[in-house]
Amino acid sequence: xxxxxxNDLFRRFASxxxxxxxxxxxxxxxxxxxxxxxxxxxxxxxxRLTAGFLHRELPVRIGQTVIGLKENPSPYDIRQVPxxxxxxxxxxDDLSLLADRTPAPSTPATTEQFVDTLRRLKSRxxxxxxxxxxxxxxxxxxxxxxxxxxxxxxxxxxTVRQRAQTCGGPHYYSSTLAYPDLSAPMAYLAPSGKMxxxxxxxxxxxxxxxxxxxxxxxxxxxxxxxxxxxxxKVCSEFCDEASCRNPRLWINDxxxxxxxxxxxxxxxxxxxxxxxxxxxxxxxxxILDYGHxxxxxxxxxxxxxxxxxxxxxxxERHYGFPAPVVKIIAPKSGVTTTYVPHHLYSMLFQLVKNxxxxxxxxxxxxxxxxxxxxxxxSSGDEDVSFKVSDEGGGIPxxxxxxxxxxxxxxKGPADASEPLPSTIEKRNALSSITFMQRAIDxxxxxxxxxxxxxxxxxxxxxxxxxxxxxxxxxxxxxxxLSRSRNAMEPGLNLHTLLESSMPVSEPARSSSASTLA
Length: 517
Hints:
alpha+beta
């Protein structure tokens, strides 16, 4: 597809809002389609109405994902990462397939054609998630190695040191928030108590007039600092990150911290868009092809038991000796709720796996009698909650924020010899069930869903994931699921995401206005 044709295609969906669905809508539609599956046409007639919705909705979700990748609200140039370029190409092709090459499902023939398109998108969605994971690893490696194609100059070590040397102090404060960015004009609290619009990098420290007003030197008094990106806007208007409110948690330099937070918000959005699109596609393909719907009434304790067992097996295989005991405590063992079983399994599997590794590594001189890991399940009127408690040494406060970074990884960059997802053998089994069947074959760390992705899965239908850690003792992870079947997909507004940042301004990049016009 030509660039012009691609941009025209994106514009068709840029101004549209995705339709947010609830767990109840997923479940009810799925049960209805399953009842009709044994009809003479295999349920295609009943599926036609749902297919019409998917034909309208999927291009909106995929189109906005492509625009988000093109506009890139992160300060890092992710388009220089091969995996993200491939991801963008895949989504562009998916959008073209849906919008231009697949007719609306209005007849039995066109409905069958649309179902075949969904099957193609389903096989591609797994490839896209793999590309996303590989791209994050490659981006993390590029940032750590200061790749000049990807890391803007104002986030490289020399500029960071320059900010520290020229500004006389680490950060400036407004009356309400700390603005860690020192590279762009902003409203600052002057010594007189008035808010002034100025550039702190050009503010001479200690020069206060008798009337209490600050004295400002002429422009050019200090070396200029690149101003392609203004994370102060993020911190002042949009950022609710604890790391931006607490200067103690700033990583070396406030501008770097804001860059990390903005990058995290972008990948939170991107991962959620992938998650929702994949669920919508796989749920309908699973119903038609395998007689399963992905949103089910589940018994969380059964899934928790299996996740803990599989994580323990991996730990034993990795270390070569028995894993710490995982004690499951459930005062209300018969609780049921409506949820996606694969999602719950993935989250608990990752949390228990992390707890096992931390416990063994912290008590590495032992080969037995490890402290017990507790997996507690509780149910109330609103939530089903889990607590995974370990005595694995805990995490210092200054490092807690890094847990939620997509750029922190326990595995190196993507291996060039590692096959791209498009070359991976396609599986016919239902993907969510397949994951639970083969999770036992994953390594102890470096693969699977990291904690940032686990938190996004939890938040997708109104839940959350929190960590409380005590350095020297251990960590408690709290996973909450909403019991409400009216829990809705999050409001993933692309325009708000793009407006909440100022990406690096380079000639090769188009502005938001040019793409979204």
